[in-house]
Queue: 2 jobs
Job 1
Amino acid sequence: MIRSFMTWCALATILTVVGASGVSAHHGTLVAYDREKQWTAKATVTEFRYLNPHAQIYFDVTDDKGTVTHWSGELLPNPAQLIATGWTRRRSMDALKAGTVITVTVAPPRAGGNVGLVMRILNDKGEELLGGQPGPPAAPPAAGRQ
Amino acid sequence: MGVAMRRFIALAAVLAVVSAVDAAAQARGAGPAPGGAAPAPGRGRAAGPGYPKFFDSNMPFEARDLAGIWTPNGNGFGGGGRCRDCGDRGFSFEFPVFTPAGQAAFDRNTPSYGRLKDSADAQAHPEEHIGRRRAQSPALGNDTYGTCNPMGMPRAILYPDPVEFIVLPDRILQHFEWGYGLRTTWMDGRKLPSPLDVDIPRWWGYAVGRWEGNTLVVESTGYDERTWVDHFGYPHSGEMVLRERYTRTNYDTIELTMTVTDPKYYAKPWTSETKRMHLLPRTFIQSSGWSGLLEDLCAPANELEFNRLIRDPAGTGKPAETGGRR
């Protein structure tokens, strides 16, 4: 009982703390991406970097025709913030090893291209990784997005 | 359950309860947050949650003892969240009157904080000075901080990450977590150089301090002109003199007001809104099992690679490299 309450508190804190950061992230992150045009898709991690100024994730998205598109993504939290929410380097790197299948929600760049702001990551069990990000509901996956 | 996980969950529980209580207070429209007045309604962006409340503000304190880790951050750690009562990242909501040279310098600066230039969001807030409504992607901006140059003052103290005040017999050091910057205020009675006599401008300026009652008054000058007053690209010239007034108002709160005097760029002195920062337990910030400020360094090796792989293609639409290390 107590443990489940504490776990709930931990999850609530992750969402609260990360949510708070969303309004005032580091340098220009909120300007470069259009969070009104988020999309969600299955993806395969090719690399994850736990670095300043922001953690980065690189991943492949395969559309209905089998075309693979490579994406680069930044996360709003920096390592300091990930540590604060319990996502230590080891835990994060273990959760996002190359080859891991994820469901990723991305805000695309206003200028176009395949670099996005990663708003949410779920693993194949549907568990949220790295705390998630605030934002409007994700649109259904769309094939061939660029 | 491991020790680290138990510690994390305990910490999380404290923060969650604090946040929940604070959020409830906000939802009720409760009055001023602990430590000061609520932000003015309708101004700027929503601030973060209330500060991490670890102390009884009414405990006895030594008004001239500023040593400790203080934060204007809503969660105490790095990452940018701002306390609800700490003010925003800008220097002031009372916007300055530029001289012609100041206006020209302001126009040359292209910040990446604030509302996106020419966006519906920017157009929806005509009450805000254009400085807060002209942000562009970092790839299109010219903020020297974007390549890890020091923020200088007063911008660094406006950044919402923790700062440690280290008090020595003859000086006070402000150690900023983000960027791991170190600023020295001399308390040994030396005189501030005239801005016109500064030999070499400094990113962190030349600063001297004295006590006026229980308020620490810091005067500084000699800043490198490439630093900005705040994140929105307000400029200063080499003639700027910055006055900061730090007052510990209770056990866990410091209030700060600042005035920029820069006749070359500003037609009259420009005074900040009151900023607040709150005390953190020395053991609060932890990584790798150690307590103390994180080495949250803006290292060019990281930043330039990040710009090349992420920021620049995101801001320009140019193709990104296809992942992977060089």
Job 2
Amino acid sequence: MAEPATLKLEFRLAPSSGEPNSEVLDDLVKLIRQAVATAPPDSSRIEADGEFRPPEGEDERSLRGLESRIKHRIEQATGASQKLIEQRETLTHQPDGAATLATESARAAEAVVAAVQRARIRGMVVTTPSVEGH
Amino acid sequence: MITIQTIRAAIAAADPYSEMDRVVRAELTAGRLVKDVFEDIRPHVQDVLDTPSLSEDGEEAFLGTLDALAGFCRADQVYRNPPVLPTEDEIGQRPRWAQLAFTARCARRVLPLFTRLEDLVPAEKRDVVLKTLSLAEGAARMGDKSLLGKLSTQTTEVWLDLHGRAKHAVQCVFSAAYMAKYGLNAKGRKETVFHGLAAASEALMGNNAPIRRDFDLLARLVSAYGWTDDTPVPPEVFGPLWPEGKPAGWWPDDPESPKRNDFALETVSSERVTDAMIEDEVVNLFLAMNRFHIARTGQSLTVEDFQPYLAALVPAGV
């Protein structure tokens, strides 16, 4: 029997700087859809089609707290991001850098699928709404 | 072929981990599949463990190698098949809709070799090929034989006018259409699928790595979830065509496809999921996507427009 959904979070992801790479963003969307399509059949049964409303009062304060904790932890990860960016920059100047980057990208892609499916197993369903014909 | 003597020599080496890895990789480099290497080693497990003077590291290296061959380890440590085309026997072991979805995936991968010829191929012929491929994908997605009657095998007429890699690309589409339209018996199916992926391989000039990767993914799913001839297989199971980035010189996406500056995500959770769990999972998901985005573009991601919603039936203050 499906569990009723109680909380929905909506957010957007965008490059923090520079020109957006539409193909890579689209690949991320496809990875999330792949994770949904290949998730273990019984990994999560959540009834997510119901109506949702914006939180009010104490609920709103509590959920804003959740939002700020998530944002804080993501900001803390900025240092790690910078290290990854620098490592990539170094790789691009090495003779076999392109192959190494391709391998790293493929592994990172698998990690995205695993992250979506891990969340699902723990009871949180992740989806990408269809937007502008995608 | 890996013998017991080879294994014993490897696990007695100064660095048994590297030596066992070298033995396995030599077999894979020679074109053998992971499952065949595993089957070489598996019968020797007891003999190896009974080896006098077997060190702790030697035992761990041996058992760790078996785990990595069987897939019981971290994803980045699993041994992968070499980039060889799947054989007809391997194809024949997969269910019907999985075979069709795989053939359509091969065709979708090489399609730009055909569609870029917009000045050479009349629009109506291009439409035949594109519609055929979409119908083949749709039939596999729905597991619906009734869609198959609409499939056209007129792609033959298109490829007759073509040469080289573009011709192979359309031949791959034709294989998907032919297999889907005529159903075929098991032998006919695997032969047709093999022709299709061989055409895709020609179109990719022998770069078989993505074809093998798609097939191995499909094989894992079939095995893990017990997919049968009745299980529909949507194209989404394969994910993006080039997660590692497109090959050098490959064509950009369809210029008519909408451009993304960002994308939206939704998470939905039930009452049993605590705030701490939601926080962990959202951050974990972000970090994974951020790593992918950096690997591909050199730019990090940021979160915008965070909006929480409660189920309408949850009373306020609960």
